[in-house]
Amino acid sequence: MRRMILGIVVGVIILSGATATGNSLFEMPEGVESRWASFENPLGEKGKGGMANKGGKGAAFDLVKAGETKVLMDVQGGGVIHRMWFTLSARGPQPLRSYVFRCYWDGAEKPAVEVPFGDFFGAIHGKMVAFESELFANPEGRSFNSYVPMAFRRAARVTFTNESSRDLDQLFYDINYTLHDNHGDNMLYFHATWRRERWTELGKDFAILPRVEGRGRFLGAHIGILGHPDNRGWWGEGEVKMYMDGDTDFPTIIGTGTEDYVGTAYGQGEFSGRYQGSLIIDDAKRRYAFYRHHVPDPIYFHRDLRVSLQQMGGAGKKEVAQLLQKGVAIQPVTIHDSKQFVKLLEMDPAPDLRTDRSLPDGWTNFYRRDDVCAVALYYLDRPENNLPPIAPVEARIEALLE
């Protein structure tokens, strides 16, 4: 029995120690070289790190002027980025939404990753919150870490652009990667895109990830909501939908509600977990932010994929009737109590909650409009995607809350 238990424990240790190249922590892979890119060695060259100031920490950080782009990594050959770490001297919402982070694979002209720096690294809405997940971390609310494996066959280029109106005094970073040509035919390239709708359209889902073409894997999303000032009640009834491989009107994969998607229930408080978290729940400012990383539950697609978030909230019938009376742009969808569940959209004509006394006096779900943004994380079988470029800085920073 002791030998059996020991064998199980050893097996667990080996599995948990697996690396991105498929080797355990104690095995030496063939033909793999370790490198770091930083301002102390931006090209990651062998034997050329820390040469500034005669080795006396002469290039720990750099200035990034307004409008300037810094190339942080530019490598020829195949390999994998395993980890990135950054910190900045300006970490407010507007700067973090103004800085643009880009990654280019295999010499492509179009970036596979093009996102606001803050939202990508978990500072959704540009608000710093201490957290740790499987893929991202901000241990004390002052830094940015990514552990997303990013493979490339022929080249990798990473850039940081300051699209704010002010110089960034200090940018610190290191990008940790390995060089090798051990990639098989099934290797996928990492992609990330960001989009925002200042106010969503009533009854229309928000596109977390517009339709992308190719073979790949959806890795998850960082989602932010700024509640519309006219709305009242709970904002998180919307279901996440995944349309894959030719789906048209209806998705193959669908959830049951926003808080359910991030692993909690009956409302949503602040927490961070290994694969899901809710980093901002600020009812006073109507500001909310959460993430979901599909690591243990892979979402594969073979032709195309689009992912959306239903724009739906909920409140008591009386409160919803008051919103309707005030002319707020909402549309009741369902109403239920312990005995009845009424599907209002299937009724013709639709009943009027303000006057129809046959309806139960219960919880009412309704379409609503909010300010929604999202970073979509995914892998694709090609180094470029078919999505449009990132929105201009003015649209990214509009109405951000400090």
Overall description:
By secondary structure, this protein is mainly beta. 11% of the residues lie in helices and 40% in strands. It is built from 6 helices and 27 strands. The chain has helices spanning 2-16, 93-98, 117-120, 258-261, 317-325, 393-397, and strands spanning 33-37, 62-64, 69-76, 79-88, 99-105, 113-116, 131-132, 136-138, 144-146, 150-152, 155-162, 168-179, 189-197, 206-213, 216-227, 240-244, 253-254, 271-272, 276-282, 287-293, 299-301, 304-309, 312-316, 331-336, 341-343, 363-367, 370-380. The strands form 4 sheets. Strands 3, 5, 6, 11, 13, 15, 18, 19, 20, 21 and 27 form an 11-stranded mixed sheet that branches. A hairpin with a 4-residue loop joins strand 19 and strand 20 (287-293). It is elongated and about 80 Å long. The model is unreliable at 1-20 (pLDDT under 50).
User: What would you call the structural class?
Assistant: mainly beta
Please identify the oligomeric state: single chain
Strand tally is 27
Number of helices: 6
Give Rg in angstroms: 24 Å
On the 0-100 scale, what is the average pLDDT?
94
User: What low-confidence regions span 5 or more consecutive residues with pLDDT below 50?
Assistant: 1-20
Hey, roughly how much beta strand do the residues contain? 35-45%
Terminal CA distance reads 59 Å
**Major beta-sheet overview:** 11 strands, mixed
